[in-house]
Amino acid sequence: MTVQHQLYSHPIDEINTKERVARLFSRSIKKDSKLFALNLTLSMIDLTTLEGKDSPGKVKQLCYKAAHLHDQYPDLPNVAAICVYPTMVPIAKKALTGTNINIASVATSFPSGMADLQSKLDEVKSVVDAGANEIDMVISRGRFLRGDYNYVSDEIAQVKDACGDAHLKVILETGELVTLDNVRLASDIAMEADADFIKTSTGKVSPAATPPVVLTMLEAIRDFETKTGKKIGMKPAGGIGTAKQAIQYLVMVKETLGEDWLSPDLFRFGASSLANDVLMQIVKQSTGQYQSKDYFSVD
């Protein structure tokens, strides 16, 4: 039996999906719940720097700021992880010694995924050996769009094996998958191949994380958990820069998957600037006054 016959085959109703998103995003959050959601959002952020100009100094600074987001507010949670290129993993590991912040690294020829399988596996093993405990891989979108689903599945499974004890987040690059049906199928393939998380995008392709795409992926996770009893994590990435957007996604998560997923163990935000706005909003909720966004710079 081929992969495509094992997986979800009902077409996605895009109009209904967009209408459900609109209903969920219209929910209002009261003050106490909002402060809880803001703190939760902060704890779910994979603080990311993935630029060609990244340097050891920039990564050290990012790690320091992640561990000391606001020393005046010691009860604030840390971000979930720092996400960097493979060559920067040793820098991050050293800088984050003594913290509980995870080290994530993109791999498998990020962001294109255009490399042979052995090179991808070697890269994954190398970054795990260097200290990464989370791997964000990209699928071979060209293979997927040609219908070579078994190749995509086998590649994910082999990368998962190469990860050892590190968690695997599988990036679908949904902006290149074109349709919600493709997003659903790619989600199912990744989960069947033993991904720990499914992730929307690299942040290098537009559109990145869109609400209909995220809802489609959450519903795939819901159905997979119903079928197998296994909980898969979700990570929207790219284009989420405000606390308001993040909270809207948390509402969607709770309504679709339930409270178990309201944890950094099962939900993350891939972001570089989101933490700034979240911190500003936390202080606003606590004191009634805004601080300058530069005061909380973490990028």
Provide an overview of this structure.
With 299 residues, the chain is an alpha/beta fold. It has one domain (3-296): TIM Barrel (Alpha-Beta Barrel), CATH 3.20.20.70. Helix content is 47%, strand content 11%. It has 12 helices and 8 strands. It has helices spanning 3-6, 14-25, 31-43, 56-67, 89-95, 117-130, 141-145, 149-163, 180-192, 211-228, 243-257, 274-287; strands at residues 45-48, 81-84, 102-107, 134-138, 167-171, 197-199, 233-235, 269-271. The chain has an 8-stranded parallel sheet. The chain is globular and about 55 Å long. The model has no long low-confidence stretch (mean pLDDT 91).
Main-sheet strand order equals 7-6-5-4-3-2-1-8
The helix-and-strand class reads alpha/beta
User: In this structure, how is the largest beta sheet organized?
Assistant: 8 strands, parallel
Rg over CA atoms:
19 Å
Within CATH, the superfamily carries the name Aldolase class I
- The CATH C-level name is Alpha Beta
Strand coverage percent: 5-15%
Quaternary structure state of the chains depicted: single chain
Please count the beta strands (DSSP E, at least 2 residues each).
Answer: 8
Integer tally of domains:
1
Question: How is this fold's topology laid out?
Answer:
Elements: H1 3-6, H2 14-25, H3 31-43, E1 45-48, H4 56-67, E2 81-84, H5 89-95, E3 102-107, H6 117-130, E4 134-138, H7 141-145, H8 149-163, E5 167-171, H9 180-192, E6 197-199, H10 211-228, E7 233-235, H11 243-257, E8 269-271, H12 274-287
Parallel strand pairs: 1-2, 1-8, 2-3, 3-4, 4-5, 5-6, 6-7
Helix pairs in contact: 2-10, 3-11, 3-12, 6-8, 8-9, 9-10, 10-11
